[in-house]
From TrEMBL:
Signal peptide: none
tRNA processing listed as a keyword: no
Protein's recorded name: Radical SAM protein
Domain Radical SAM core: 103-317
Keywords assigned by UniProt, alphabetized: Iron, Iron-sulfur, Metal-binding, S-adenosyl-L-methionine
GO molecular function: catalytic activity; iron-sulfur cluster binding; metal ion binding
Length: 480
């Protein structure tokens, strides 16, 4: 870190401490100070949204105040990690690296500490992986060291059940206090001792898997799981610790998930965020029958957007929010995934790779053939309600895998991209007319933004598109 960056960090951290002393009185001054220290081209849209939330005292302002009710040490550390280290200071470093290396550089890295899991959830490929594979403590530290060099300060654990490795994960939090660690977890291993460790390190946030009500959650995750989830949430709330919800929604649970009652339950339990994931039929044993119908997906699209205007809960809809980030964010554009065997995959749902972290550097993995194909082809569709090369544009993934010589990374049974396409193509065809209707809806509050192809694109995205000769106003899909 340069002297200038160190001075900027010190000033921003001092600002966090200042606001923390009296948030209700000082939050309104927050954006004025940020604008003074941070260049105008760093997150302009997000800064405008924050300012609007503060000025209007909206439900988002209420969410900000909820953050300031967390454990004092935890909230200060996390705000500094996430706001200062992982975004304000990190983004310019990431953009510089993207321009220098002419490849995607992620904002976050997802990694599987272990393939082991104590549950066997319906439709989850990890349930078949067994307990044999792990990224060692040294492996994970190496990934983080390399990531930090590129400006990455957000690391997200997937699995398997990451908390099988809870001791190592806490050690890593200690070693990297300038990083934020989020963990997708079934919550069954969260106990009093672990809550105390979370308080001590102050930079670890669980995202607890829950799918609607007790019936739908236990139907997928096993009898009694919902009760264990509630106990974990109660424990975290009693200690004023941050956590959120990870919800995989399927044809079977969509009606239970997309309810105000379910969202109110999350807020009452203390959750600060919910990440909604459309079920992906990945793995030879995964059934396409669990994929939501177009009607269910449209309902989820409308439900999440309505609730965003009403509830103090941060929500991300990973299949319907593409327009806010310029389409697909995989392939290292904003994130990548490293499985427990070390395979560096474009996405947690795309089990194909050219590179393994045990054999190449993180940067070389980002420059591997499959990742470079993502770099050249994104966005896969200018209708960002159809962002994915596997789910909504199912012809794209088989072409990219064939052209780059990538291999299947499934740890149990190989699935070719053509076999995966057979499962996703019917759903893609059914969703396409719905997505086109929604995208063209002039009554939608976001319609005007959709006419601007730069919306959701970083400056390096714009230069990348120019470099590969892609005009999004005339070429809706990449030439693969």
């Amino acid at each position: 870190m340069s002297l200038t960056q160190a001075a900027e960090r010190a000033a921003l951290c001092k600002l966090v401490d200042y606001v923390d002393e009296n948030p209700e009185a000082r939050i309104p001054k927050l954006m004025d100070t940020v604008d003074r220290y941070v260049p105008a081209d760093v997150f302009p849209t997000q800064r405008a949204a924050f300012r609007h939330a503060i000025d209007s005292r909206s439900n988002w302002y209420e969410l900000m105040l909820r953050v300031f009710h967390l454990n004092p040490e935890v909230r200060r550390r996390l705000i500094k990690c996430f706001l200062v280290d992982a975004n304000i200071l990190a983004w310019p470093v990431q953009e510089e690296a993207r321009d220098k290396h002419r490849c995607n550089i992620p904002w976050a890295i997802l990694l599987d500490p272990t393939s082991a899991c104590n549950l066997r959830c319906t439709g989850c490929w990890a349930a078949e992986y067994g307990h044999a594979l792990n990224l060692s403590y040294e492996d994970i530290c190496s990934i983080i060291d390399q990531g930090r060099e590129l400006g990455v300060h957000v690391y997200i654990y997937t699995g398997g059940e990451p908390l099988v490795r809870k001791d190592d994960l806490i050690r890593i939090c200690e070693k990297y206090p300038d990083c934020a660690f989020l963990c997708f977890t079934n919550a069954t291993l969260i106990d009093e001792a672990f809550c105390q460790e979370m308080i001590r390190v102050a930079n670890f946030v669980p995202a607890i898997s829950a799918e609607g009500n007790e019936h739908t959650t236990d139907a997928r995750r096993g009898e009694g799981t919902y009760a264990k989830i509630e106990r974990a949430m109660d424990l975290l709330r009693e200690h004023d610790l941050p956590f959120g919800i990870s919800c995989c929604w399927t044809r079977a649970n969509a009606d239970a998930v997309a309810t105000e009652e379910n969202m109110d339950w999350m807020i009452e339990k203390g959750a600060l965020f919910c990440w909604y994931f459309h079920f992906m039929p990945v793995g030879r044993g995964a059934s396409a029958e669990l994929m939501p119908t177009p009607e269910q997906r449209e309902r989820m699209y409308r439900f999440v957007r309505q609730m965003r205007g009403e509830k103090p809960l941060f929500t991300l809809d990973f299949q319907n929010d593409g327009e806010y980030v310029g389409g697909c964010i995989a392939g290292g554009r904003r994130y990548l995934h490293i499985n427990a065997a070390g395979d560096v995959e474009p996405c947690v749902f795309i089990h194909y790779a050219n590179a393994n972290i045990h054999e190449v550097s993180l940067l070389d993995a980002l420059r591997s053939p499959l990742f470079m194909k993502y770099y050249e082809a994104q966005p896969f569709n200018t209708n960002h309600l159809r962002p994915c090369p596997m789910l909504e544009n199912p012809d794209d993934l088989p072409k990219m895998v064939a052209e780059t010589g990538a291999h299947c990374t499934d740890l149990v049974e190989q699935e070719s991209p053509e076999q995966l396409r057979e499962k996703t193509a019917p759903a893609a065809a059914a969703w396409a007319p719905v997505a086109e209707r929604l995208w063209a809806d002039e009554a939608d509050p976001d319609h005007a933004k959709r006419l601007n192809w730069r919306e959701g694109q970083a400056e390096t995205d714009v230069t990348r598109l120019a470099r590969v000769g892609r005009d999004l106003t005339t070429q809706a899909e990449p030439r693969l």
